[in-house]
Amino acid sequence: MFFQYRVIDIREMDGDRLLKSGAIGDNLIAILARLRDDKGAVRKILRRIASLEASQRETALAQLLILAGLPALGKDRRAGSAKNADSY
Question: Domain-by-domain residue ranges, the chain?
Fold first, then answer.
């Protein structure tokens, strides 16, 4: 058996294309890729996170904080941040 693959740098990927996906995981990974508007992308992702059910929202927001390189916030502040996506 033989497998072959190509290693790519995620910064070479089109993050805007990942933002168009209906999967929140793709949206989150977009932060690591090339984006035309970083702040706009974060706003869009926060709005999508805010629309998730509570357990999914908490997980997605924690993942966003990790990917963005931000320190973890308290549980109450994280939930509030997702609900106030337009204030970013």
Answer: 10-87
